[in-house]
Amino acid sequence: MPRGKVQVGLVQMRCEDSPARNLERAVEGVRAAAAQGAKIVCLPELFRSLYFCQTEDHRHFALAEPVPGPSTEALSLVARELGVVVIASLFEKRAEGLYHNTTAVLDADGTYLGKYRKMHIPDDPLFYEKFYFTPGDLGYRIFETKHARIGVLICWDQWYPEAARLTALRGADILFYPTAIGWHPSEKAEYGETQHDSWELIQRSHAVANGCYVVSVNRTGHEGPRDGGLEFWGQSFAADPSGKLLLRAEPDQEATLTVELDLGKLDVVRTHWPFLRDRRIDSYGDLTRRYIDAETP
């Protein structure tokens, strides 16, 4: 695996009510990122549709597809043509009545390398994902792509240091987080800045704690009723292993951004901040408990 520099592309999209058009626009984003020199391109969470989890509606299951399937086939052609790795978040139909929030990874020659199924499934107002998605059962994975060794986690996973750690321990140089997160418009004035800052801060902390890069790619734009719905806050970003922001997109605009990540620096970072070396793995067994209280055996 090369340990040089790699250019990474972030495609921050507005999504519309046409899966075919969203896929076309995602391909356009991949092409734009590749034209800027990107070798790995990440798309937002569930980019083929509007964020349907705002309601519990059985009709939305018709949006799902097999993975690999039609979308990965279309994107693999573009990946092979451009020589780029594509990270594509999709609504997976695994079997009748069994669905996942899944991200596929396509290598730079178009090869389907595999998928990650979202492990942490939220159930909050307008984020009713437990109605649609079965929690992932593939574990935390890395993908040996042509250009880097990457790990993929999805949106709600980004709040869990355990997920970042376990993916990093498998050898990830870069943690990618395809994301669909936004404000309730009625709460934005009071809570918006704090919510966004917490979201960014927790992910930057994963970069520090694990000595790796973090790339988070969100959607943007308002979806849902004008007097409600969700306002996706954009602000896709990349952070280096010190937690420093390398770039951040605007909150309310589509953007295709690229950033250069120097993989050769990771060993230097990890030997100067040897968090992995000094872990007391003999003392962490209680992490598998839900909570440690007086009644815990």
Indicate the CATH architecture.
4-Layer Sandwich
Q: How many helix segments? A: 5
Quaternary state of the chains: single chain
Radius of gyration: 19 Å
SSE-based structural type: alpha+beta
**Which residue ranges are poorly predicted, with pLDDT under 50 across at least 5 consecutive positions?**
none
Topology order in helix (H) and strand (E) letters? EHEHEEEEEEEHEEHEEEEEEH
What is the number of beta strands?
A: 17
Taken together, the total number of domains comes to 1
- Which whole number gives the mean pLDDT? 97
Helix content: 10-25%
The largest sheet is: 6 strands, mixed
Which topology does CATH recognise? Nitrilase/N-carbamoyl-D-aminoacid amidohydrolase
According to CATH, what is the class?
Alpha Beta
Q: What fraction of residues sit in β-strands?
A: 25-35%
Describe the structure.
The protein has 297 residues and is an alpha+beta fold. It has one domain: Nitrilase/N-carbamoyl-D-aminoacid amidohydrolase. Helix content is 24%, strand content 28%. It has five helices and 17 strands. It has helices spanning 19-35, 70-82, 161-169, 185-210, 266-272, and strands at 5-12, 40-42, 85-95, 98-106, 112-117, 123-124, 127-128, 142-144, 149-152, 174-178, 182-183, 213-217, 220-223, 230-233, 237-239, 245-248, 255-262. The strands form four sheets. Strands 5-4-3-2-1-17 form a six-stranded mixed β-sheet. Strands 8-9-10-12-15-16 form a six-stranded mixed β-sheet, covered by helices on one side. It has a three-stranded antiparallel β-sheet with strand order 11-14-13. A hairpin with a 4-residue loop joins strand 8 (142-144) and strand 9 (149-152). Helix 1 packs parallel to helix 2 (70-82). The model has no long low-confidence stretch (mean pLDDT 97).
